[in-house]
Design a protein that fits this description.
Number of domains: 2
Bound molecules: cytidine-5'-monophosphate
CATH architecture of the largest domain: 3-Layer(aba) Sandwich
Helix content: 25-40%
Distance between the termini: 27 Å
CATH topology of the largest domain: Rossmann fold
Radius of gyration: 26 Å
Strand order of the largest sheet: 11-8-12-15-16-18-19
Strand content: 15-25%
Oligomer: single chain
């Protein structure tokens, strides 16, 4: 995802700095090249050796240190970087950055950074609420190259509970992905159904399937990265509940992608108490009735300009079945995956899909991560 991207991490001296080595690992795993600049105080919380080892580069923390190849790292690092991430950003560093103060390696480097910057503040709740911090954050939020993350609420290092926690490394990573993704779905509303449905037999048991919702989650994430407003309707819930939510959300949406594995039938009766074993028989019959078909329901209510994408998970006569669903449910595109393909289908992180369109064309893809498949699906939908 971040192959070839240059990320410059700026650490200041807050306890949340202990989480940054994990962020470096995630970035490197995603293919990014990472360099680190810190304030002097940051190195009280995490060692230079840790940062150097994980990033594979010398850490820039002392403007006048002789280890620096030349004395202008604060200029060459921003030139090298595609993006800077200041995390954790303490109240002190936020105020300095907003005021243009550049009196150490981190703030001097930030002052020269004209490319995108993500800032993840972290501090005690009272410092967060201080007028000086508020003023600095309001100022920085207005800079067009800055994405200022909010603090999370929860337990703080000082023993209290409040607002001031740094966002977790995974959250910051997602913001980095998002910042690198062109906003092709900006202003668009997308509805996604995902995961399994469950149909209750009694208060203890239900009928369901092996869907985990991974494909739908990957789609929701990619839509969000592209700037869409996403409504993710995620099982487990009954098909009727999912249908109700999908109909409501689709009314003013630009597109719906239906990746949920919806039960076609449900038990006619839902017992209010646990069904007991019957003494004189070795058999039990369940009477099932048909569920609403969410895709077909949305297909009927579809207005001009709305796009509807369905999934078909098949085990035989794959193309034939998928093509007929595409037409019958009034879809614009159907994503076919076969359980016969290894690495495709329930639970795995990969999928192998064929896209079928209304004009009869089809596109085949190799085995890819569900993240990559999500990107391909969205690349193949044209929204007006
Ligand atoms: O007919 P089948 O269940 O194979 O169709 C698959 C497609 O239809 C998927 O997009 C699935 O989410 C959707 N579907 C639905 N409501 C149902 C059954 C399937 O939306 N009751």
């Amino acid at each position: 995802m971040l192959e070839g991207k240059h990320i410059l991490l700026g650490l200041s001296g807050g306890i949340a700095a202990y989480k940054i080595p994990e962020l470096i690992r995630l970035l490197v795993k995603a293919g990014a090249e990472v360099r680190v600049t810190t304030t002097a105080n940051a190195l009280q919380f995490v060692t230079e050796v840790t940062l150097r080892t994980l990033s594979g580069h010398t850490v820039y923390s002392d403007v006048f240190a002789s280890v620096n190849a030349h004395a202008t790292e604060h200029i060459s690092l921003p030139e090298w970087a595609d993006m800077m991430v200041v995390a954790p950003a303490t109240a002190n560093v936020l105020c300095k950055m907003a005021a243009g103060i550049a009196d150490d390696a981190l703030t001097t480097t930030f002052a020269a950074m004209r490319k995108p910057v993500i800032i993840a503040p972290a501090m005690n709740d009272k410092m967060f609420a201080s007028p000086a911090t508020r003023r600095a954050m309001n100022e920085l939020a207005q800079w067009t190259n800055i994405t200022l993350l909010d603090c999370a609420e929860g337990p703080l290092a000082c023993g209290t509970n409040g607002k001031g926690r740094m966002q977790e490394p995974e959250y910051i990573l997602e913001e980095i992905y998002s910042a690198f993704t062109p906003k092709t779905l900006s202003g668009k509303k997308v509805v996604i159904t995902a995961g399994p449905t469950i149909e209750k037999l009694d208060p203890v048991r239900y009928i369901s399937n092996f869907s985990t919702g991974k494909m739908g989650r990957a789609l929701a994430q990619e839509c969000r990265r592209r700037g869409a407003e996403v409504t993710l309707i995620m099982g487990s819930m009954s098909a009727r509940e999912m249908c109700e939510q999908a109909v409501t959300a689709f009314a003013d949406a630009d597109m719906a992608i239906l990746s949920a594995a919806v039960a076609d039938y449900r038990p006619e009766e839902q017992a209010t108490t646990k069904i007991k074993k019957q003494p004189d028989t070795t058999e039990m019959t369940l009477h099932l009735v048909e569920n609403p078909d969410i895709a077909a329901t949305l297909g009927e209510m579809k207005k001009p300009g709305q796009q509807l994408v369905g999934f078909a998970l098949e085990t035989d006569h794959e193309l034939e079945h998928a093509q007929s669903k595409l037409v019958k449910k009034n879809l614009d595109m159907i994503v076919l995956n076969s359980l016969r393909d290894e690495g495709a289908g329930f639970g795995c992180d990969t999928n192998k899909v064929t896209l079928l369109f209304r004009d009869g064309t089809q596109k085949n893809y190799p085995l890819l991560t569900k993240e990559a498949v999500a990107g391909i699906i969205l690349d193949n939908i044209k929204l007006s």
